[in-house]
């Protein structure tokens, strides 16, 4: 399977615990995005990487959130001291970059990690 | 913040009918993309239309873009039960991709 994969698919944790999610993008894609989606809403942008460089972070990404893409391949998203408001689906997507226009092209999404904070 | 706003929020139609959903946005864009999401799953890309294009087709899908009105529409012809899903538009500008809240489409048998 050469699609985007995410692990775990589901995570239940107690408030105050730390959690880490992993995303493996499509291998030839240089861009990797993290989104958060709550029920009835569209995905909200959190951050993205081009290769190993983190180029932008949303204001939604508080100090408790950190993302890495150490070798420009897989990425991790860590949430420290989880709060009930962090309960959501966390989506990862990868894409290539149109070198003519510079625009991000089609994004390929993983199945998501559903987080429930009790 | 979410720039794109889909209309209607929810739509129920009979199988075989056409479904039209609209997306309005606020700022200029480089391209606009439509995605489908089945319940509880990841998003699937449907079609991308660039700012210099006005219409694009892909199978039973037809997308239009009116940059003067800052709006786009997605038409699904001859709907099927499998088209039941949420549909999102995503606007792309300066490397930022912003999704709307989506239209929930339900195809009735």
Describe the structure.
The complex is a heterodimer of chains A (118) and B (109). Chain A has 118 residues and is mainly β. Helix content of chain A is 0%, strand content 47%. Chain A has no helices and eleven strands. In chain A, the strands form two sheets. In chain A, strands 2, 4, 5, 6, 9, 10 and 11 form a seven-stranded mixed β-sheet that branches. In chain A, β5 and β6 form a beta hairpin. The radius of gyration of chain A is 14 Å and the shape is globular. The termini of chain A are far apart. The mean pLDDT of chain A is 90. Chain B has 109 residues and is mostly beta strands. Helices cover 0% and strands 59% of the residues of chain B. Chain B has strands at residues 5-7, 10-14, 19-24, 31-37, 43-50, 55-58, 61-66, 71-76, 85-93, 96-99, 103-108. In chain B, the strands form two sheets. In chain B, strands 2, 4, 5, 9, 10 and 11 form a six-stranded mixed β-sheet that branches. In chain B, strands 1-3-8-7-6 form a five-stranded antiparallel β-sheet, with no helix packed on it. Chain B is globular, with a radius of gyration of 13 Å. The mean pLDDT of chain B is 91. At the A-B interface, β5, β9 and β10 of A face β4, β5, β9 and β10 of B.
> In which range does the helix fraction of chain A lie?
under 10%
* N to C succession of SSEs of chain A: EEEEEEEEEEE
Give the amount of beta strand of chain B, in percent.
over 45%
Number of helices in the DSSP assignment of chain A: 0
Distance between the termini of chain B: 36 Å
Stretches with pLDDT under 50, minimum 5 residues of chain A: none
Helical coverage of chain B, percent range = under 10%
Which pair of chains has the greatest number of interface residues, and how are they split between the two chains? A-B, 28 and 25 residues
- What structural class do you assign from the helix and strand content of chain B? mainly beta
Work out the radius of gyration of chain A: 14 Å
Approximate shape of chain B:
globular
Backbone structural class of chain A: mainly beta
State the shape of chain A.
globular
The Rg value of chain B, from CA coordinates, equals 13 Å
Number of strands of chain B: 11
């Amino acid at each position: 399977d050469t699609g985007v994969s995410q692990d775990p698919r589901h995570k239940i944790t107690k408030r105050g615990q730390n959690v880490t999610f992993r995303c493996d993008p499509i291998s030839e894609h240089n861009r990797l995005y993290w989104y958060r989606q709550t029920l009835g809403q569209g995905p909200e942008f959190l951050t993205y990487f081009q290769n190993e460089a983190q180029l932008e972070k949303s204001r939604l990404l508080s100090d408790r959130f950190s993302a890495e893409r150490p070798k420009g391949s897989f990425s991790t998203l860590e949430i420290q001291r989880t709060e009930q408001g962090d309960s959501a689906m966390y989506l990862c997507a990868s894409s290539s970059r149109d070198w003519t226009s510079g625009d991000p092209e089609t994004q390929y999404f993983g199945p998501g990690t559903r987080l429930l904070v009790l | 913040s979410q720039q794109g706003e889909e209309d209607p929020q929810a739509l129920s139609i009979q199988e075989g009918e056409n479904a039209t959903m609209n997306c309005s946005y606020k700022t200029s864009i480089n391209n606009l993309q439509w995605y489908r999401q089945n319940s509880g799953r990841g998003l699937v890309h449907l079609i991308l239309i660039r700012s210099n294009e006005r219409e694009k087709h892909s199978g039973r899908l037809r997308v239009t873009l009116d940059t003067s009105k800052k709006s786009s529409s997605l038409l699904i012809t001859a709907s099927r039960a499998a088209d039941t899903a949420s549909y999102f538009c995503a606007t792309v500008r300066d490397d930022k991709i912003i999704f709307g809240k989506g239209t929930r489409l339900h195809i009735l048998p």
